[in-house]
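HUMAN: Now follow token order:
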Amino acid sequence: MATSNAVSSRLRAVRTSKRADEPSSKSTQNVFERLPPEILVKILSLLDPSALFSISHTNKLFYQLASNNALWKKLYNAELCNNKKQKPKIMNVKVLTKKIGEHSAGYWKELYFKTVAHRKMKKWNCLLGPISIHTGLPTQTEQVLRNLRVTWELTVTDMSGHKTTLGLSWSQFSETSLTLCWCGGDCLLSYEEILILQLHGVRRIALSHPSLKKLSRRSLMANLDMQSLTKCIQVIGQDQLVQLKLLQPGLIIGLWRHESSVAFIMFTLHFYKLVERSTQGSYDCSYVEPVIQPPFDDIDPEYGLHGYQLHIVLHNSECKLMSESFSQLFCHRAHISDGWIQLTAISRTNPSQHIRLLGMPTLPWKCEALKGSVENCCIMSLTLLDEFRKPFRCVTSPVSMELETAAVSYDYDGEHYLIQYKDSDIQVKMQLAKMNAKRQFVISLIVYVSVWFVNKHFSRDY
């Protein structure tokens, strides 16, 4: 847009004249304040949305002027006309520095961006592809995130309040999850010095003018207080160089074994609503998922206890160890025990259900020039669907295998291991038997769902 370039050049010229006239710093400092607001708003009315948004970050004055409701209402109406393939109506801009109608300053600016974002999300939701019959998730999540040019940043706050933002070191997409890693080097603090960890999804905004500064939209995905997390920390494995500490489901920190410094920080994220969580929040607030209740049913006496479908994946950053789906899982009302319903996917007493892993559970890691692999660890990604084939509970987290002292199955004469996962809503217990160094079988898989969680979702009173 030629007019926008001209306006930007005019503003740069004003700044240049300020530098050239150093003796009269006071008068040049207030050069914009001396111009009538009507003139400044008239100039800003010639800008397109991306240029207007960009110039609002110049200083406080331009932020206030560029939030003028009349400017953004004009752009909002033009956007609606363009969307309907109609010729935009020419509207005169009336200068109202505080309010237009009953709306406060910035109302139409926020409405414009919400409308554009909603329209684009509808477009990307179509491009997310059909829903998988096995996972209940869109099939093109990875491709949409790549097309949107989404990346992720980690902000580390130390005890003094100083913040350091780290760019992503590496990422790995799996079937239903994403693994993100930030390596230490000289950027990460020692483990005891970290106060807060913040994870943001970052989407680069392409502006219409190459000369304008590239902007980014950040969406808060996690805001973690390290002081509270250290109370329930769990060591899930180690090799000769690093020790892996699970701070909470989906978050591990690798520490150099003979030091307190952080080697890397790793997040694992489930695909469920990952596009929305990565793009639709704000810098300070996470994306809030709309609550959609399933249909109410007062006829079925065991509504909410049957028709479940489970999809579970075991993998690491290099390969997939297991990917299986289990349908028609149920729990009779009489079998509810200790506040949990039990869904058995693989029975220990039925050898025909046992599944061989495609490899041995390990969790490879890499940090700059060093790399290694922690044995008896992997990443579990679990998707539990309700009877309407909608995601009911989704989990992605690193897990560890613990050696069991007593054999749980006499059909396997090797060592037996247990993988456990637990949070307030769901528990997973997976038993494995090792035949030899290269053959390992899943001989039991049981998912426990909190009765409180079932009651809340299905409006029941079990």
